[in-house]
Each structure stands twice: as structure tokens, then as C-alpha cells.
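Lab manual, section 2.4: Encoding a predicted structure.

Procedure: take the sequence of the chain (184 residues), apply the prediction step described in section 2.3, and record the output as C-alpha cells. A sample record is shown.
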Amino acid sequence: MNPDIILPPQVAWASGAFANGPLIRKATRVGDLTGVFSDTLAWQQRDPNDIVYSVEMLDSPAQAGALYVGVTHLNAGKIGDEFYMTRGHFHKQREQGEVYFGLSGEGLLLLQTEQGEARLERVAPGSVHIIPPFTAHRLINTGTETLSSLAVWPTVAGHDYAALAGGFALRVFASADGWEVGNG
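Recorded output:
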């Protein structure tokens, strides 16, 4: 007797496209990102329906030990001189970590502790990023094409956006040399 062989969900590593799985999709638009970009006037002048990033993730049960797997597709663009970025968050359950894998495009991962200590890591195809517990994180697209990153995190982690209402300690702006870092 041959056992049934199940075809699990698959991801195309070059594009981050999922197949064969129950997907949850969401898009975050310019209008959803109130207070995220430093140039409020430039933000107000943009079409609020323009998509900044989208997320596709495999549906998983929200229970201890279960994991989400998702891909963020962060479009190239700027608001004023500041590159497109994700909203960024801590986990509600701060002790939960996360792992990012760079798939395509180029950019930065901004990491910040609860004490406000911040650092940047380059994101590129093949890069692996271990996001420690108690650390907020945000993707920033410094390139000219979509930045796609696969993430794995506990389903019980949750998102805490309110803890970053004042923003991150660092911001990344376009410059003649590509990009530069400024204070948040």
C-alpha cells in the first residue's frame, strides 16, 4: 500500500509567489500610513490609494507552536526624499522573534530595541535576517524594483504598532550616493 503524498504549499524563490496553499492577502496603501513618513505635505499630496506594499501569507491556526509564512512585496518609491517602507512593528508578545529571507530587490531592514537602539541590515536576494525577541522591525526599499522578503514568525506573536507611534530612531532618505541615514 502506498501512502497518500500531499503536495505542500510552494514558493517561487525569485518572485515570492505562493502556490498550493490557503492564502491571506492584504495591501497597505499610502493613505493607511498616517504619520509614518517625515514629509507630511508630500504624503498628503500622494494618491491615498497607491499601494506601498502587499503581503501574502499562508493561513495557519493561531495557536502556540504554529507558524505563519508570508512574503512582503514592498514597491519602489518615495514620499518626499524618504524611501517606501513598511509600517514596522514590535510583536505584541515581545518574546517572539522572526526570520526574514531576502528574495528579490534591494533594501534595508531597520531593527530597533525597546530602548531605542537601532541598526540597519542590507536586504538582498539570499540574505537571512534573524529578528531577535523584543525588537521592532521595518523593511525599507532603497532600490528601483520591488523588494520581496519571505518571513516566518509565530502565529501568536501579534503586531504592536502603537508602541512606535513616535516612529523609529532612524530614517533612510535618498541622496546623491543612493541613500543616507537620518535621525527619526
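Check your result against the sample. The CA atoms of residues 11 and 18 lie 4 Å apart.
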